[in-house]
Amino acid sequence: MGKYSRLTLLAFVLVAFSMALFKASGWHFDYGFRLPLPLPVAQAAVPPPASLLKKTRRGSPRQPAPEVIMGRLDAHLASSRQQTTPHAASLIELQDGCTSAPPCRGRTSDTLLAKPADCGRRCDAAAPAPEGSAPPCRGRTSDTLLAKPADCGRRCDAAAPAPEGSAPPCRGRVRAFWFSGSREGAADVTINSAVFDPAGDSWSEEQVVTGRADTQRGLNRYIAKVGNPVVARAANGELWLFYVTVSLGGWAGSSITLITSADDGEHWSAPRRLITSPFLNISTLVKGAPFFYADGTMGLPVYHEFVTKFAEILRLDQTGKVIDKQRLAAGGRGALQPVVLVQSAQQALVLNRYAGKDAEKRVISIATSDGGWHWQTPQKSALRNPDAALAALVLDDGKLLAVLNDQEHGRESLSLQLSTDGGASWRELTRLEEMNGLRNAGLPESDCLDVVAHLLRSSDARLRKAGTEQIAPYVASAKPQVLARGGCDFEFSDPGMMRARNGDIHLAYTWNRTFIKHVHIDPAWLKHRLREAP
Amino acid sequence: MPFTDWSGLTGLALVWLLLAVHLPYAQRLAPLRRVLFVAGAYVVVMIPVFGLSLAGWLRGMVGDLSLTSVLLLGSALYARLNSAATPLWDARERASLLLFISVMALLLYPFALGWGPLDPYRSGYGSIGLIVMLALLALWALRRGLALLPLTIALAVTGWSFACYESTNLWDYLLDAPLAIYALWVTIKVNLQYALRRKHV
Fold it and tell me: Which uninterrupted H or E stretch holds A76?
């Protein structure tokens, strides 16, 4: 090499590294979490009118004998296509022009102890519904445990114009995403979506968001299959939808793709690939809901499955570029599908599916107390886990809710669990599904299908009074899955959970690999169960 | 097409082009015709047929190649097009680069794939420590009279600075899995041969 060539190369090296150092010096992020806005759990949005409060002998107002409303827990089938195998739901509340934190007005079930009249008064306060045109109060009254439908049946927020100068009312609509096709991993699997409107208490028709061919075209590379959508609301208000794609092999060969929507999921951008692994960029999968750091960057819980299994967090900047990646646990501990629960600006708990070989199968928990800078050694929690995904969230008062299969083997049950001590101990609030014991019961096929029909009727208000003919297509859809392994086998899995601005909790999960089932819990129900729980 | 897609696909197209110039037909062509043949082949491998190009298919399998791979493939293609009797880089240059890639691969992949709690891949996200280490290595190589190794490192760092690929991680500009496998294979083979020769001497 000549002298001049050497000098030229030296100059290139110096310039290259100067530019790199300049770029790296601007590569900055902070630890610490951004807390979600507090939500009004089970609190009356409007205090009861004074006229309803009786005077005591001393002249001070006194609560009338309450007529207890225990709240509501509704179920719907979110997916509408038959003969498909949908999986892995993820939920997000739509903006609907509701920009601020104030609770939705007129949520009759927000009030645990209010008299039904309060409910109506509150509903009517915004705008009395015209005679004969008032939609039912979010259509949810029929499922209220103790309240009478007539108590709340006069109006709904969607119809009520907001008072001048105030934020528009939240409609509380929720969009769900899942993947669905002829079978898991098939080339015809697409990412689908539907919208739940509480006003009509119903889900829209299922729509295809994207699929293998669209993704392949957009990413300019071969794609064999898609799956696992996870949705998030970005800092700029856009919806970001992460999903995995596989070009070769099984799910361990997954990479993450991102599409964005500026109109709450009506239209989507071209896909963008996240590069997250040095080895062919394979084996980064997503399942848990993203969260935010205090500096506005997004944390995306992901996991690795190739060679060994472990949980990680990707950090994305406001444009969706990966700016950091943090391993939560070394490989071999079986921590998968992390769900991050931000408890304070410095504290967070990660609950992981356990995919290890220990006989005692428990959810793996990993905690931080310094804003995510360091993560403690993974611990086995008190929650049982049969190597299945779970969903969880934090309530305003620090209590934790989790939905998971509370068993060590199989996925025949689904349980809503509560922790009041930051995840140290858990207790069951309710059993959402329970079909343990049927697999080996030797049930004849016809009896098994009767059970399926019964379950379907209890899973969707539209099917509650369905006749044999009406429910037959649903049963036929479920039949191959339920009878697939010879017995009468049920599976409830892959839950996703979110909390709306009005305090409602929505969860969705795979129902026998046949439908996506949505469960809608209002704050009154939750508060009632919290009080009931020992 | 976004620039990062074009750059990624072009790097992968080099693999197909290198295969193409090895075809007997291409070898019989005059140098200028061979260049035209390669240009035509580039168009063919880049144009999507039924929604996917040949380069795109390969991209699905292995992802974007590192700039080191692109440099080596480009050098090999250049040598083929010019019917050069001697390779562009001498054996010492090549051996040094492949040794560097082998060491980096051994430091990176086992840990990145889950061996232990530390993930060296994380240092590729704007770590000043990694950049300084690479700068010192490049300057040391220059001082030793090497050109290919510092050129490769500087090229990778420049590509990362300008975000030439989808990846925001510096490691992806330095090395990739196929290159790492190739480098390890060549390095082990060369050292084994050297050891055997010494034994017989």
Answer: strand A73-77
Across the interface, of A17, A222, A329, the residue whose CB is closest to B61 is A222
* Number of Cβ within a 10 Å radius of residue A286: 28
CB-based contact, A184 to chain B, within 8 Å: no
- Cα–Cα distance for residue pair A341/A355, rounded to 1 Å: 20
ipTM, two decimals, is 0.92
Longest dimension (CA), chain A: 105
Could you tell me how many helices (H) and strands (E) chain A has, helices first?
A: 6, 28
Contacts of B118 in chain A (CB under 8 A): 327
Q: Do B157 and A277 touch (CB under 8 A)?
A: no
Tokens in use for A146?
């103790």
Please indicate if any CB of chain B lies within 8 Å of the CB of A248.
Answer: yes
Q: What is the pTM assigned to this prediction? A: 0.85
Q: What whole-number distance in Å separates Cα of residue A436 and Cα of residue B85?
A: 74
Cα–Cα dist A407/A388, whole Å: 10
Residue A430 in tokens: 């309710």
Neighbours of B133 (CB within 10 A): 12
CA–CA min distance A194, chain B (Å)? 28
Q: Does A11 touch chain B (CB under 8 A)?
A: no
- CA–CA separation, A12 vs A338, rounded Å? 44
A220 contacts B1? CB cut-off 8 A? yes
- Model confidence pLDDT, tens digit, residues A225-246: 999 999 999 999 999 999 999 9
A25 touches chain B (CB under 8 A): yes
Q: Alpha-carbon dihedral of residues A369, A374, A376, A378, nearest 10 degrees?
A: 120
Classify burial at A202, counting beta carbons within 10 Å of its beta carbon; exposed 0-12, middle 13-18, buried 19 or more. middle
* Interchain CB distance below 8 Å, A220 and B53: yes
Using one digit for the tens of pLDDT, what is the confidence trace for B185-194?
999 998 888 8
Distance of residue A532 Cα from the nearest chain B Cα, in angstroms: 43
From B170's Cα to the closest Cα of chain A, the distance in A is: 10
Shortest distance, CA B167 to any CA of chain A (angstroms): 5
pLDDT, tens only, B123-176: 999 999 999 999 999 999 999 999 999 999 999 999 999 999 999 999 999 999
Segments in chain B forming alpha helices (H): 3-21, 24-27, 31-46, 54-62, 67-81, 91-112, 128-143, 148-161, 171-174, 177-200
Mean pLDDT of A113-141: 36
Instruction: Tell me which residue of B89, B146, B133 sits closest to B107, measured CA to CA.
Output: B133
Q: How far apart are CA A284 and CA A305, in angstroms?
A: 7
Helices B67-81 + B91-112 axis angle, to 10: 150
Confidence band (pLDDT; 50, 70, 90) for A88? confident
Residues A160-208 have pLDDT tens digits of 444 555 555 677 899 999 999 998 889 999 999 999 998 888 999 999 9
Q: Which percentage of chain A shows pLDDT scores above 90?
A: 55
SS3 label, residue A520:
strand
Is residue A105 a contact partner of residue A46, using CB atoms and an 8 Å limit? yes
Give B-chain residues touching A366 at CB under 8 angstroms: none
Query: What are the start-end ranges of the H helices in A400-496?
Result: 445-459, 468-482
Find which of A33-37, A78-82, A170-174, A425-429 is predicted with most confidence, using mean pLDDT.
Answer: A425-429
